[in-house]
Amino acid sequence: MSWMLFIVASYILVERGVTEAACPTSCQCDVAQDGQKRIRCQLVDRSPPLDLTRFDRNVQVLEIVISGPSRSKPYGPDVPPEFGDLPRLDKLVLKNAGIERLSASTASGLSRLFTLDLTGNNIRSLTDLSLADLPQLGVLNLGQNQITSIDGQSLRFLPKLQSLTLADNKISQVSVDAFTSQALLRVLDLRNNNLRQLPNDLFDRITRVERLDLRGNQLIVLPRGLLRLNALRFLLLDNNRLSAIPREFVLAWRSDTALEDVTLYGNPLQCDEGLQPLVDWVKTSAGVQQVCRVVGRTGDKEKSGTCPVCEAPSRLRGVPLDQLRASDLAVTADGSSSPLSSRLVRGDDGSRPSQASSFIITEVRSRSSRPTQFP
């Protein structure tokens, strides 16, 4: 019996020795509440790369965060192949590390990965990441990179994706079939990009989205496809270029019992008769809570929640929507009775806009002026 106890004790000591030896002084090695082995490293810029070969091969959570934007490329431009030698890895965080690519050979060793966070790197295209070799991926965070577009092929091998963050990139184009494989998607974060419009059919396959963040873009119109998001709880639209909110959107939001927040602050709203449905909603107890008194969500750098204000006409500029009177919307800035609102209109040939097109913004300068149409 004594020799068995000796063997067990020796095994425990060896295991402890390996764990301690595999944990650099700049890292913290522990076991998370869910029982996963975890290594967390907080480094400063220009720190020498960690010796990944000394890490415990059974580690399941590995977080390496370099404080501030990296001027060097300690782990780039390719994700080091040593990461692929950690077969049990469930979560990999590699921030501000100069990463530009993830090769297929490295990704193939990470086939169990559920969370991949490459925030603050130099990734320029989703095609530079071998996502096809990460079939179990459920959370993908690529915020603060250099990505300019989302095509229809980059994400098609990620059917289990539940959360996608592409905030703070340079995205100006999103293909209509960008998310055709993401039926399980719950969170989509596209804030602080260069989006001027989104395809109407973009949301056809991601109807389970609960949080959609489009703040800080250049959106001129709301895509009709938003109306298909039946599970939506948080719709964040602050700081875009929306001058009007069509009636059918307001009616849909008012009747949606699941919807908690709709943020619209920082948009150049045209306060005329066309905005009446939104103003009426904001003046209700439920509407003011959902549009004006929004509390900051966990993880947001800035709190949304200030009540939207009028941009035009000039006499109403800066007035919060919940303070408008019914008579304020009755006439335009020049005293005419024609509403100066953005509306869905017929095309130049008299036909109605196609189903695939977004709402056409028409700013009626006068009764005799020709409407200006934005794509």
Can you give a write-up of this model?
This protein is α/β, with parallel strands linked by helices and 375 residues long. 13% of the residues lie in helices and 14% in strands. It has 5 helices and 15 strands. Strands 1-2-3-4-5-6-8-10-11-12-13 form an 11-stranded mixed sheet. Strands 7-9 form a two-stranded parallel ribbon. The radius of gyration is 26 Å and the shape is elongated. Residues 1-21 and 335-375 have low confidence and may be disordered.
The computed structural class is alpha/beta
Task: Name the shape in a single word.
Answer: elongated
> Could you tell me the number of beta strands?
15
Percent strand equals 5-15%
Cα-based radius of gyration, to the nearest Å: 26 Å
Strand order within the widest sheet? 1-2-3-4-5-6-8-10-11-12-13
Alpha-carbon distance between the two ends: 82 Å
- Run of helices and strands: HEEEEHEEEEEEEEHEEHHE
Helix content: 10-25%
Report the biggest beta sheet as strand number plus sense, adding barrel if it closes: 11 strands, mixed
Outline of this structure?
By secondary structure, this protein is an alpha/beta fold. The chain has helices spanning 2-21, 104-107, 247-255, 276-282, 285-291; strands at residues 27-31, 37-43, 61-66, 91-95, 115-117, 139-141, 149-150, 163-165, 173-174, 187-189, 211-213, 234-236, 261-263, 269-270, 310-312.
Write the layout of secondary structure elements.
Blueprint: H1 2-21, E1 27-31, E2 37-43, E3 61-66, E4 91-95, H2 104-107, E5 115-117, E6 139-141, E7 149-150, E8 163-165, E9 173-174, E10 187-189, E11 211-213, E12 234-236, H3 247-255, E13 261-263, E14 269-270, H4 276-282, H5 285-291, E15 310-312
Parallel strand pairs: 2-3, 3-4, 4-5, 5-6, 6-8, 7-9, 8-10, 10-11, 11-12, 12-13, 14-15
Antiparallel strand pairs: 1-2
Helix pairs in contact: 3-4
